[in-house]
């Protein structure tokens, strides 16, 4: 069983390939694995033979749906690769990969140029203080590479400089960092080399002085300032490759080996000890001799294998039989088997140290974002949370077969364990189970997994809007419940008044009964009857909110009065009062924030206004992107992603957050009341 403690932390590189779908990340992984002898032949996405895309759904759809972890060796350097899906709906899979690496490699297709997903991942990587690398793929496709490089520098900064250049029409690639000479398809190796050296020496005054005095500095002496420039974002290397032909693959491996940081050189992960404002930053030391700190960035749940946690070791050494705590858990688990992953294959290893990415299986306590440690005093340490996008695309689901409700909840829980951008909740007001994701593709993949992996068939429909009812005036209601069936009867009489409360105030129950006309022991039954009517609604079948109910009179019978009689009397008295209190239906109004290309801003603001929305402001963000903020009725935004895709060519995204409730327009209220009356008649 191999050990990963050698060749040492300094010889480890960790790299996440991120960026848009169809940029060629999975094909690039195949090329790197083949070039280093990790696989005998390059796999094909079309034939479903790649190492990364091992899931049957991925093979059928011919693009990545899950994060895949791989490893290879180049010379004496061990390289951990994470291949991520590029669809915006699958950010819950892609973003956690940034927690496990020193370098984020943003892959851009030479044929399609800079896409929004590349911009987003570059921003996320910068926010996590990762070294960044741009890989331009498909250089053999005849694209205008000089213009693309200019676009990259315009979008991401002048610090994006090529460390190699394509030559012979993209058939090969020439180094520009260590070499000063050679022919290239554009620019020149000498000019590119000079620009790189000048950019690197700027971070170190000593090298600046040498450069000014001598006119040049040998690139082999620039390791320390180079790593500083990468850490500070002062240099973002650009590499050119063709995963299809293999051009640039050897040079990319050399860049990873010679230029990218090892775990001792990258910015340290942002660990915190404690919670909230009291949390203080602590630094994990990439030292194999210290106590263990590792972070679980991915969880998979297989119906046959069980739960598996994939983690990056930041400090210490983990070996077979190590005892580890999960977060603030008080009982450690024993590492029975320690794995490295090669796609779906598990390679068992004896031990692993800082920088290594490994996995353990069949530990139920594991969860996404957990910190593994071997010292009880570290139970309050956690990694600074990632800013995940909020899932707002909802779908109401229910099992086709009666009796499968609990099984459906159990399976959904497992799928949510795997993806932090999935959410499920039971809406008490609409009695629906709603799954929320980042878009239609996200939820479609969830439904496919329910059906194909877990053999669970479900019905789906758009979720109902959680309307509310309230009153706008005070009114009184009265009901006498009297029932005689030959034996003991039922009797209860209630007089009450309803009054409107401020929006969001909820419910207030007031007992103003005098003289014991309703005995004290029956007042809980009166309140229960009122709450029953509030839960089921009065005019449109939605919960009643923001009302005060004052019970001021009533009657009882010494023999026939029972709790059920006062429950019924109070419910019907409340309904009578509400009908006279100018009732209205309230709808949820949400804050909406839309991020889209600047060219679509006019269409978006106009469309939002047409949906009974109001625009409160706009602001510009990176590279031609704009954020539109406003408010709109939630009912007008059902299925909004499809409309937004049409206006932005699929480049827009949005988030929603509940703001408040407002009365619906009169015609909408009339429609909702009519629908409720039809349901009652049925």
Structural features:
16 helices; 682 residues; seven-stranded mixed beta sheet; 35 strands; alpha+beta; elongated; disordered N terminus
Write a structural description.
The chain is built from 16 helices and 35 strands. With 682 residues, the protein is α+β, with helices and mostly antiparallel strands. It has a seven-stranded mixed sheet with strand order 2-3-1-4-5-9-6, with helices on both faces. The protein has a six-stranded antiparallel sheet with strand order 16-15-21-12-13-20, covered by helices on one side. β12 and β13 form a beta hairpin. α12 crosses α13. The radius of gyration is 31 Å and the shape is elongated. The N and C termini lie far apart (69 Å). The N terminus is likely disordered. InterPro entries: EF-G-like_DII, EFG_II, EFG_III, EFG_III/V, EFG_IV, EFG_V, EFG_V-like, P-loop_NTPase. One of its GO terms (molecular function) is translation elongation factor activity. Keywords: Elongation factor, GTP-binding, Nucleotide-binding, Protein biosynthesis.
């Amino acid at each position: 069983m191999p050990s990963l403690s050698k060749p040492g932390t300094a010889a480890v590189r960790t790299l996440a390939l991120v960026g848009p779908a169809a940029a060629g990340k999975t094909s690039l992984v195949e090329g790197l694995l083949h070039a280093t002898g990790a696989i005998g032949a390059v796999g094909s996405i079309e034939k479903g033979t790649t190492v990364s895309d091992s899931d049957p759904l991925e093979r059928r759809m011919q693009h990545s749906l899950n994060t895949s972890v791989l490893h290879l060796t180049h010379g004496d350097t061990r390289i951990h690769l994470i291949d991520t899906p590029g669809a915006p709906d699958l950010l819950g899979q892609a973003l956690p990969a940034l927690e496990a690496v020193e370098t984020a490699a943003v892959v851009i297709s030479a044929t399609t140029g800079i896409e929004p997903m590349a911009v987003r991942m570059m921003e996320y990587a910068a926010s996590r203080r990762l070294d960044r690398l741009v890989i331009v793929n498909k250089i053999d496709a005849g694209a205008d590479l000089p213009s693309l490089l200019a676009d990259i520098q315009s979008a991401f900064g002048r610090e994006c400089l090529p460390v190699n250049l394509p030559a012979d029409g993209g058939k090969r690639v020439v180094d520009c960092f260590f070499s000063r000479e050679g022919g290239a398809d554009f620019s020149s190796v000498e000019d590119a080399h000079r620009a790189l050296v000048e950019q690197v020496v700027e971070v170190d005054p000593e090298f600046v002085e040498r450069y000014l005095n001598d006119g040049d500095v040998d690139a082999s002496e620039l390791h320390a300032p180079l790593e500083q420039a990468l850490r500070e974002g002062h240099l973002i290397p650009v590499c050119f490759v063709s995963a299809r032909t293999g051009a640039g693959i050897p040079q990319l491996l050399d860049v990873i080996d010679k230029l990218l940081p090892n775990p001792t050189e990258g910015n340290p992960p942002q660990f915190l000890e404690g919670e909230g404002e009291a949390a203080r930053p602590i630094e994990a030391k990439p030292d194999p001799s210290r106590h263990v700190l590792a972070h679980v960035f991915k969880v998979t749940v297989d119906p046959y294998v069980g739960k598996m946690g994939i983690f990056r070791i930041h400090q210490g050494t983990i070996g077979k039989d190590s005892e580890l705590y999960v977060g603030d858990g008080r009982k450690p688990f024993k590492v029975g088997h320690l794995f490295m992953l090669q796609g779906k294959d598990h390679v068992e290893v004896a031990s692993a140290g800082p920088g290594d990415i490994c996995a353990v299986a069949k530990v139920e306590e594991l969860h996404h974002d957990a910190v593994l440690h071997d010292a009880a005093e570290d139970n309050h340490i956690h990694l600074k949370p990632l800013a995940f996008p909020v899932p707002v695309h909802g779908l109401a689901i229910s099992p086709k077969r009666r009796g499968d409700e609990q099984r459906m909840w159990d399976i959904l829980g497992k799928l949510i364990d795997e993806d932090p951008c999935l959410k499920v909740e039971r809406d008490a007001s609409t009695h629906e189970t709603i799954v929320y994701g980042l878009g239609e593709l996200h939820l479609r993949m969830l439904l496919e997994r329910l059906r194909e992996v877990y053999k669970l068939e479900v019905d789906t429909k758009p979720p109902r809007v959680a309307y509310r009812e309230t009153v706008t005036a005070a009114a009184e209601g009265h009901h006498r419940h009297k029932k005689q069936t030959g034996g003991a009867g039922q009797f209860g009489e209630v007089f009450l008044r309803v009054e409107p409360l401020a929006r969001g105030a909820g419910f207030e129950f007031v007992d103003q009964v005098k003289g014991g006309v309703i005995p004290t022991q029956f007042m809980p039954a009166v309140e229960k009857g009122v709450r029953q009517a509030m839960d089921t609604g009065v005019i449109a079948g939605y919960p009643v909110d923001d009302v005060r109910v004052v019970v001021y009179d009533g009657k009882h019978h010494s023999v026939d009065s029972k709790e059920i009689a006062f429950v019924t009397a109070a419910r019907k008295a409340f309904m009578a009062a509400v009908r006279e209190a100018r009732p209205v239906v309230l709808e949820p109004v949400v804050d909406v924030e839309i991020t889209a290309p600047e060219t679509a801003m006019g269409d978006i603001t106009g469309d939002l206004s047409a949906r009974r929305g109001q625009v409160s402001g706009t602001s510009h963000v990176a590279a031609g992107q704009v954020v539109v903020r406003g408010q709109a009725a939630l009912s007008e935004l059902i299925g909004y992603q499809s409309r937004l895709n049409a206006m932005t060519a699929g480049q827009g995204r949005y988030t929603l957050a509940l703001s408040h409730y407002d009365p619906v327009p009169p015609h909408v209220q009339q429609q909702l009341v009519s629908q409720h009356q039809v349901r009652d008649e049925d």
